[in-house]
From TrEMBL:
One of its GO terms (biological process) is methylation. The lineage of its organism: Eukaryota, Fungi, Dikarya, Ascomycota, Pezizomycotina. This is S-adenosyl-L-methionine-dependent methyltransferase. GO terms for molecular function: O-methyltransferase activity. Keywords: Methyltransferase, S-adenosyl-L-methionine, Transferase.
């Protein structure tokens, strides 16, 4: 990208913008509003799956616009932007703590004076907070003295999961990340789930989820925040369905074990899209109970729940052992233990499928690829886990047993996730 001239970059943006205009005009039935800004910021629950060319055009604009900005801006200015970014956190914390989105009506506007009264804060300070928030597209001032929502602040106001994800990020992830270097000084191997910034900031020896279990409101917020992060269209489970030929294996005697499958969200989705194959969701006790209770009646014959600790030997001989967002929580040592515990149960041709974010092998400055790096830092801060590259996966799977063969990685365009496949081939 760096070899392109500024004009070429600008033309690329123009071309993709025209494409998006055209696609939204001719209407795939997915972006019903005339306002592009609003349409493009709809959440997944409001829209259907985004067509691939539209998704790609959006990513191209984001990456190219960022590159163009970097090229026209002096490095001193870019550097200052980087190290002054912490004030975004200050303002977001004020937005969260003072529940500012909830102070503004979903349509129309209110005044600074009314909000100041409602949150019992000096109006001058509050105005300063809002002025900064407006600069980062949270709220707008439609007329002097009045505050209204932008799509971002409206989302925080109307979607409780979005608001919880803001709280979970500011109150759990940010403080843990600030202690990462202290944790690394104390525990340089960075392999244990009890030796991270999270334990240091919370003065505990417990892993994240065990600690949160003792603080029910924080645990609730953490769960809700995670649910919000998994709602993006780039995480749509249709991509998982496209990544593997599930329909080809859709027979009565084909069994998929979803290891650490939570409440069974993936199993339910795959069972709905297939006719015959069976799913066993394994997780820790409380989670399994909740999943079992919520299982739709019509799937009870094909989806079952089972308590199983994935650090003990797998009792089910299945065709597929599926894991989503498990391995990134653990260091290689622990992942090796999880995989090794599957091997005694595996029959010839059985597969391990790991559905995870993937880090690029070569580091990139493309903004659209920043998500994997972000998640990698979250994993370091709270779990001593990591987001892996293709070579990281190969290494992990290859060290187990030479009968376990790394088969490849399925990547579906538009998806943030990759499906890593290994097969038991004695
Ligand atoms: C990040 S969540 C992923 C849940 C699910 N796979 C999904 O994609 O929605 C990690 C899951 O691992 C489960 N888990 C953690 N330790 C476990 C263990 N030792 N045995 C089985 N499940 C475990 C947690 O209860 C949680 O449901």
């Amino acid at each position: 990208m760096t070899s392109s001239s500024l004009v070429q970059l600008a033309e690329k943006i123009l071309e993709r913008a025209k494409m998006i205009d055209e696609l939204t005009k001719t209407n795939f039935g997915i972006l019903p509003n005339s306002s592009h800004l609003r349409s493009l910021t709809q959440t997944r629950t409001e829209q259907q799956q985004v067509p691939l060319e539209l998704a790609q055009a959006r990513l191209d604009i984001v990456d190219t616009a960022q590159e163009l900005k970097r090229r026209v801006q002096d490095p001193e200015v870019t550097l200052a932007e980087l190290f002054t970014g912490y004030t975004d956190t200050l303002i977001l914390r004020a937005v969260y703590k003072l529940k500012l989105p909830q102070q503004v009506p979903t349509e129309g506007s209110t005044t600074y004076a009314r909000i100041a009264q409602s949150v019992s804060m000096d109006e001058t300070i509050l105005r300063r907070f809002f002025h900064y928030a407006i600069s980062i597209h949270v709220f707008e001032e439609p007329e002097p003295g009045h505050i209204a929502h932008t799509p971002i602040s409206r989302l925080l106001c109307t979607n409780p999961l979005a608001f919880d994800s803001l709280g979970m990020t500011l109150e759990e992830l940010v403080p843990a990340s600030q202690e990462v270097l202290v944790a690394l000084e104390r525990y340089p191997r960075a392999t244990e789930p009890t030796e991270t910034g999270f334990q240091i900031v919370n003065q505990t020896d417990l892993p994240v989820y065990e600690f949160l279990a003792q603080h029910p409101e924080r645990a609730r917020r953490f769960g809700a925040g995670m649910r919000f992060f998994t709602q993006g269209s780039h995480l749509d489970l249709n991509y998982l369905f496209e990544a593997f030929p599930w329909r080809e294996y859709d027979s009565n005697d084909f069994t998929v074990v979803d290891v650490g499958g939570g409440h069974g969200g993936v199993a339910i989705e795959l069972a709905t899209k297939t006719m015959n194959m069976h799913f066993i969701v394994q997780d820790i006790e409380g989670t399994i109970e909740a999943g079992r209770t919520a299982l739709p009646e019509e799937l009870k014959g094909r989806v079952t729940f089972m308590t199983h600790d994935f650090f003990s030997e797998q009792p089910i001989s299945a065709d597929v052992y599926f894991f989503r967002w498990i391995m990134h929580n653990w260091s290689d040592e622990y992942c090796e233990r999880i995989i090794r515990n599957l091997l005694p149960a595996m029959k010839r041709g059985a597969r391990i499928l790991l559905y995870e974010h993937e880090m690029d092998e070569t580091p990139t400055s493309r903004l659209s690829r920043k998500g994997a790096g972000y998640l990698d830092m979250v994993m370091l801060s709270g779990f001593n886990g990591c987001v892996r590259t293709e070579s990281g996966w190969k290494k992990l799977l290859a060290t187990q047993d030479n009968r376990l063969r790394f088969k490849g990685i399925h990547r579906v365009p538009g998806s943030a996730m990759s499906l890593v496949e290994a097969i038991w081939d004695p």
